[in-house]
Amino acid sequence: MSDNQFEGPENLIKQPSGLLAGLRNSFLTGLVVIAPVALTIWLIWSVIGWIDGFVLPFIPNLYHPDNILNTIFGQDVAINIRGLGVVVFLLFTTFVGWIAKGFLGRSLIRFGENLVCKMPVVRSIYSGVKQIAETVFAQSDRSFEKACLIEYPRKGIWAIGFISTDAKGEVKYKVKAKSDLLSVFVPTTPNPTSGFMLFFPRSDVIELDMSIEDAAKLVISAGLVYPPYKSPK
Prior knowledge:
- The chain is α+β, with helices and mostly antiparallel strands.
- It has two domains: 1-101, no CATH class; 146-220, SH3 type barrels.
- The protein has helices at residues 19-55, 65-73, 84-100, 103-116, 120-137, 169-174, 212-220, and strands spanning 146-151, 158-166, 181-187, 195-201, 206-207.
- Strands 4-3-2-1-5 form a five-stranded antiparallel beta sheet, covered by helices on one side.
- A hairpin with a 6-residue loop joins strand 1 and strand 2 (158-166).
- It is flat and about 80 Å long.
């Protein structure tokens, strides 16, 4: 198979001989196709159910779908609308964000944060959760620039990394490097949210053409999923 083509599910299983072996191969190929779809649907369905279970208790019983239908039709109707809690959560979160952008909202948030900062244990938890939320969800220009290859943890061993920014401040001026320093995040497998933040000379970093998403897939799959690539040669 050439490097610029994806492997189809039928190519992931070795071609057998014989009827039983052929049925086994067909079953495994079908499993390769069905398993990702089924697991994705199950995960989404479970997350929606978890949000519903958390949000719906805060909604008055009068406004639950089954009670509304009972009021309209005058009879008992048992119904469970999956995702209603998600809709309420999205609307409520959007409303809170809209309020927080105004002067009154900013003033209330500032007052609340000043109050929290006076609580010894609570302020540590709040500041940590806030930093994580701002890093993951905040809309800003701060993001990884490119995927790269670096020699880590020693020469001759290569690892996937994500270039963050050029090193600045004290780090830049205290390190006597042969070229500019780059801050590189080296993720762990299969959980790319943890890893190491390292500084490398620019000359020691090999930038990759693959996207950040493709590099993340490569890390998560432990080297099993490679993006398509056409050699310049």
